[in-house]
Every structure is written in C-alpha cells, then in structure tokens.
Amino acid sequence: MHDLIVAGGAKDPSVARLIARAEARGRQVLPLLHSDDDVPAFAWDYVANTARVGRLPLKAKAAFIRHDVFSHAGQAPPRLDAAMAWYSALAGWCLAERAMRMFNRRLDQRAGHKPCMLVLAREAGLAVPHGIAANERGAVVALGHPDGLIAKPVAGGGYCQALADVIDAIPWRDDRAPLPALVQERLTYPEYRVYLIGERVLAFAIESAEIDYRREPGAAMRFLAPGGFDRDLGAQLHRLAAAVGVDFCACDLKTDPASGTPVFLELNTQPMFAAHDQVAEGAVADAILDHLDEGHSRTAVT
Fold this sequence. Notes:
Layout: E1 2-9, H1 13-24, E2 29-34, E3 42-45, E4 50-53, E5 56-57, E6 60-65, H2 77-96, H3 114-123, E7 131-136, H4 137-141, E8 149-153, E9 161-162, H5 163-166, E10 176-185, E11 188-197, E12 200-207, E13 220-224, H6 231-243, E14 248-255, E15 262-268, H7 274-279, H8 283-292
Helix pairs in contact: 1-8
C-alpha cells in the first residue's frame, strides 16, 4: 500500500511540486499522471470495489487529485474531454474508498459557482464587489463607466480584464452577448491569495501592474508569516469554506481603494499552488501533505 496517490496531468506544475515534496519527506508516492503521450493502465471493478494500475493493486492511505488543465490546453473539445474522463474516473474511485484521506470529500455543488459563492460570502459578513452576472448590455451599462469596471468569465478559466478594453469587441446581438460574464467594480492591490488547508491559513499578498496578476510573470508575491493575515478574516473564510464542505481551497480577495478593506472575490476548490509554494519554500505542499497524513495534528495554525 502506498502512502499517497497523486493523480492529474503530467504537465501540471502543482502536481509535480507536490510529488517532489512528498518524496523528499520519505513518502511512498504513486503518481497517476496522464498526458497526450502517456496514460496509466487503470481498471476499476466498481462491483467488487477493486482497482489496479497495470498489474499493481491500487491501494493507498491518502490521495490528492486535480483536474488537468495543462496537457490539453488550446486543443479541441475531444482532448478536453480526455482530461474530464480521467478526473471523473479517478475521483470517483477515490470517493468510493471511504477510508482513504482526501480533500473536499463533502463538497457542496454551490462551491463550484462563483456568483453563488459571492451570495454566500455576503451572507457570511464578508465584503464582496458590487457587480452582476449578465449578458444584457443595458444591465452592464447601468453599472457605471467601463473604466471603473472589470469583466471576467462567470465560470472561471480566463483572465480578469478592464471592461473598457473589451466591451466594444463583444459580438452584441440585440444588446445581448453570447454568454454571461461577471462584471464588477474595479478593485486595487494588494490582492490576497489565501489557502485554507484543513485548519491552516496560508496567505500571500500580491502586487502587480496588471489587473490580473497572472499576466505578469514578475508580479511581486509575499508569503505572510503566521499572524500576518487578519485572524478574524481567516476565520470567516474558514466558516464559508466549511459551509460548502471544503477543507482545501484558495480564496482570492482584492482591496477596496476607498476603505482599504479586503473584498472577497472567489473560492477555488482546485487551485494551482506551484508558484505560491515556491515563494513559501514548500509551506503549501507541506500543509497539504500534513493534512493527508493520518497522524496530522488538528491544532489550528493561522
């Protein structure tokens, strides 16, 4: 039996970093990685509830699995379907193994919908940006001048952009865009990426010249030592995550330029973490591995 199964895309840097950290800690890791060039030989008899990889019985104390968004990026839908097929099969097996430790086993479907999470965050007392999810031009224009607004995909998977830069390029038809988007007030830096891993809070402060810091490879990122992030805000985020059955996620917040208040943007249940982990010298990967360890202490670290 392995200590840990790590499943996902062979080109995913977060997966690669977690495997390397686990092996450096002496863990027995079984990688189940897929790519265009190579896939594992997986078979799961869901009636007998036995699984194997090749001739190797598939058994582990814990598992970490990510939906691959790297191996088939930019390819046609059939290749994207391959990533979902691998995630569905492996996640299904992990969930059926009730004794195996994994993250987000009790995930509520509300956690996967950004506008819904904004409603829940507001109900939990968190500040959220003023905005709408809409494809109606009149509703967008009513929010105010485009210079003070941003637009981003309602389902994620794309960059945040200044509305003024994209509004004229939208193929409006009868004042309707082809698909809804999130349109929100424009906030400012610092931005905060806050990982909630079990009971731990690992926070990063980010500064960038871009609206979306992911567009700037040199964006300044600083790991906030324990106690460097508002403890009460961290507790609020934990309560929000718990309400939707999440014990591993990343919350993104940005700053209200008028008040300096951190404003909740979204909760991501499958966040990338390689760059943040590098800045934190392995602290994110260590927290993941600690929580998946059966002997992990339940003492809160914030």
